[in-house]
């Protein structure tokens, strides 16, 4: 029997305490997210019993009703038929009453800084994650095609699909900027403009030309900001503060013209000189630190790097490893640290997704997890897995770290070495040449351990409710939103284990 969405929407509004109890409402890909004046006024048991409702949970100061694929229809009903503030559109009028009330409420509701940062990241990548799923699977298909039929990479059809798939990752800073601005209740156009400048063709040309530049006598760090997360997150936070400040202090008659000008003019130097380069500068330190640790501990460093790599990706520092890998191959003929660690991190992400697929009761989540696992293991595409599954569910990310550490340690102990650049996927195992048995053993251990640890630790499976158990309460309060940094080299016009220079430079892992 078809759902009556008007009736369902009205029942939800009534049972969360009525219009007077709703401060605002937004949504992610599966849930309605209410900010309630008093969450205790909501009749949770009644809501759970409604047809079409998959569950109810509370987290991040939000009363969340899980509706799955029906969430967009119900949200549109609320937006069109009820006088409720929705967070789907930012406040672009900037009245003088613009305050930080929402931010203060969220800060008071989050217990520590780590949770605050995590909530900000998750909320920022929510608009991006569905695009990542689509683009990531296109890359998987292209990667498989070129591994079987290398000449296909030269066809115009392949190239067009390749451009489509890569654009989602190349312009990720812009997409993240949009999500971050929405999370901070600011106008996305400002931060998108600033971040887009970092991808502007003439700016990219300066980066590629290795020119020396300065602004206000301060050196400008010129680096590739495509596929990064941190610059967009930091820029959005800065601009949200500047936006509130300038729209408050500039008189009404002048605000429309001068507030936008000052927001852009003040934020640009701060972003270009300080915020955007943070990932690049810190990344260089991290690379040197791992090289130093490897000189002392040897193979154990492979496990350490594989364990912390998810956080390196989220900080946008992973492209820093490419020059060191190239130098290592040129000087010693092999890479015994970075390539093995990056490959095993990808396997750990894929193994955790397999664990989620085996444990979850939600058919939709199971399908997503299997697709993400294939992307990680077969093609080295880990963004959907990291942001869409493992970071979102939290405990699988711990499994990724543990299994990566153990698998990396095994690879280091057995002496696995990559003798070419290639990709970090099982399609590229031949680049390990004489040590291929060592890396195969490490890969199997990593995938199996990651899946087993995920299943043992479990996760808050609030979305994993079968249609036969729609009225059962899910466990936990983990948000469904998820998506920094691309975790593997783009699918280029070459087979999966190409040694072409263009792939060497593009391969940040």
From TrEMBL:
Residues 470-509 are annotated as: Disordered. The active site is at residue 28. One of its GO terms (biological process) is phosphoenolpyruvate-dependent sugar phosphotransferase system. Residues 479-490 have a biased composition (Polar residues). Keywords: Cell membrane, Kinase, Membrane, Phosphotransferase system, Sugar transport, Transferase, Transmembrane, Transmembrane helix, Transport. Residues 6-88 form the PTS EIIB type-1 domain. Gene3D superfamilies: Glucose permease domain IIB (3.30.1360.60). This is PTS beta-glucoside transporter subunit EIIBCA. It comes from Lentibacillus populi. The gene is pts12BCA.
């Amino acid at each position: 029997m078809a759902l009556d969405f008007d009736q369902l929407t009205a029942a939800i509004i009534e049972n969360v305490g009525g219009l007077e109890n709703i401060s605002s409402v937004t949504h992610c890909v599966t849930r309605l997210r209410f900010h309630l004046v008093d969450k205790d006024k909501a009749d949770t048991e009644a809501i759970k019993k409604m047809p079409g409702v998959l569950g109810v949970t509370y987290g991040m100061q939000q009363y969340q009703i899980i509706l799955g694929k029906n969430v967009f229809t119900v949200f549109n009903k609320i937006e069109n038929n009820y006088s409720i503030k929705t967070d789907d559109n930012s406040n672009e009028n900037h009245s003088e009453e613009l305050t930080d009330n929402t931010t203060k409420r969220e800060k008071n509701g989050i217990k520590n800084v780590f949770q605050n940062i995590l909530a900000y990241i998750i909320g920022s990548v929510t608009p991006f994650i569905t695009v990542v799923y689509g683009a990531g699977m296109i890359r998987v298909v292209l990667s498989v095609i070129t591994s079987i039929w290398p000449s296909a990479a030269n066809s115009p059809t392949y190239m067009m699909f390749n451009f489509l798939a890569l654009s989602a990752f190349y312009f990720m800073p812009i997409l993240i900027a949009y999500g971050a601005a929405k999370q901070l209740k600011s106008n996305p156009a400002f931060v998108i403009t600033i971040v887009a400048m970092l991808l502007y063709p003439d700016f990219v040309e300066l980066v590629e030309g290795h020119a020396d530049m300065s602004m206000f006598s301060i050196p400008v760090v010129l680096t590739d900001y495509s596929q990064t997360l941190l610059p967009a997150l930091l820029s959005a936070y800065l601009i949200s503060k500047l936006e509130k400040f300038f729209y408050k202090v500039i008189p009404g008659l002048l605000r429309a013209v001068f507030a936008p000008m000052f927001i852009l003019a003040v934020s640009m130097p701060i972003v270009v000189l300080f915020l955007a380069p943070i990932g690049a500068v810190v990344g260089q330190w991290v690379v040197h630190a791992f090289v130093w640790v490897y000189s002392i501990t040897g193979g154990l460093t492979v496990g350490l790097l594989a364990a912390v790599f998810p956080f390196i990706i989220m900080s946008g520092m992973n492209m820093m490893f490419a020059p060191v890998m190239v130098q290592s191959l040129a000087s010693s003929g092999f890479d015994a640290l970075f390539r093995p660690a990056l490959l095993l991190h990808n396997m750990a992400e894929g193994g955790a997704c397999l664990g989620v697929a085996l444990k979850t009761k939600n058919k939709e989540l199971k399908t997503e997890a299997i697709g993400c696992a294939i992307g990680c293991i077969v093609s080295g595409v880990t963004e959907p897995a990291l942001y869409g599954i493992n970071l979102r569910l939290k405990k699988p990310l711990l499994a990724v770290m543990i299994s990566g550490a153990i698998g990396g340690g095994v690879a280091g102990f057995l002496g696995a070495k990559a003798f070419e650049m290639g990709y970090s996927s099982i399609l590229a195992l031949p680049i390990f040449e004489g040590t291929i048995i060592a890396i195969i053993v490490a890969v199997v251990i990593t995938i199996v351990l990651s899946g087993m640890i995920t299943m043992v630790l479990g996760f808050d499976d609030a979305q994993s409710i079968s249609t036969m158990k729609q009225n059962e309460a899910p466990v936990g309060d983990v948000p469904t939103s998820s998506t920094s940094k691309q975790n593997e080299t783009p699918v280029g016009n070459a087979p999966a284990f190409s040694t072409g220079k263009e792939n060497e430079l593009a391969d940040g892992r």
